[in-house]
Design brief:
Layout (H helix, E strand, L loop, with lengths): L59 E5 L2 H5 L5 E5 L4 H14 L7 H86 L7
Length: 199
């Protein structure tokens, strides 16, 4: 790795993407001077042999994105599954097991992992649907209750209006009767208030 890559975050402390090699060029750089206790500089002899360079278990690696690419793999090639979803990955692994195609990972273990994952997802989905159904039922019940309450209130209001109308009618009748009686009283008073001068 480059000089001081363990010291600074920008050079790759807990950041693998930033960990890159750069040739040491400083005047007093300890790596360039090949001092003891410092990182080694890249020099002649670091590469592997040309024949085995880039091979996985002596086979040429091929990136697989789908079943079609897996079917085209030769005998001297090994499949490396790309970043794909669980569904496609499962299909590829099943096909590899059936046709004895070599893959960089253990297909049986990978299949078990995927099946566990899918099972968990199904359980989660089932729980979610059950919760949704319960919520809908509760909402329906509450709506029915509200509708009943509203109907009751409307009936009560209608009854109250009828009572008010009947009360008004009765009060109007009473009022008219009282007015008549008042007129009669006034008339009587007028008749009697003549200071003894006849009718």
């Amino acid at each position: 790795m480059r000089t001081d890559f363990r010291k600074y975050s920008k050079l790759g402390v807990r950041r693998k993407k930033k960990q890159k090699y750069r040739k040491a060029k400083g005047l007093d750089n300890k790596m360039r001077l090949k001092m003891k206790g410092h990182l080694r500089n890249v020099s002649v002899g670091f590469k592997r042999k040309k024949k085995t360079r880039g091979l996985v278990n002596g086979l040429r690696p091929v990136l697989i994105n789908n079943l079609k690419e897996l079917k085209e793999i030769g005998k001297e090639e090994i499949g490396i599954i790309a970043k794909i979803g669980s569904k496609k990955r499962k299909e590829i692994l099943d096909y590899a097991i059936q046709n004895h195609i070599k893959i960089s990972i253990d297909p049986k273990k990978a299949l078990e992992r995927i099946e566990k994952k899918l099972k968990k997802l199904k359980e989660k989905k089932a729980k979610r649907t059950a919760k949704k159904i319960e919520r809908d039922k509760k909402a329906k019940k509450e709506a029915e209750k509200k509708a009943k309450q509203e109907a009751k209130e409307e009936r009560k209001e209608a009854k109250g209006e009828n009572k008010l109308v009947s009360d008004k009618m009765s009060s109007e009748k009473k009022g008219s009767l009282s007015e008549k009686s008042d007129d009669d009283k006034i008339k009587k008073e007028i008749k009697s208030n003549n200071y003894g001068r006849g009718n």
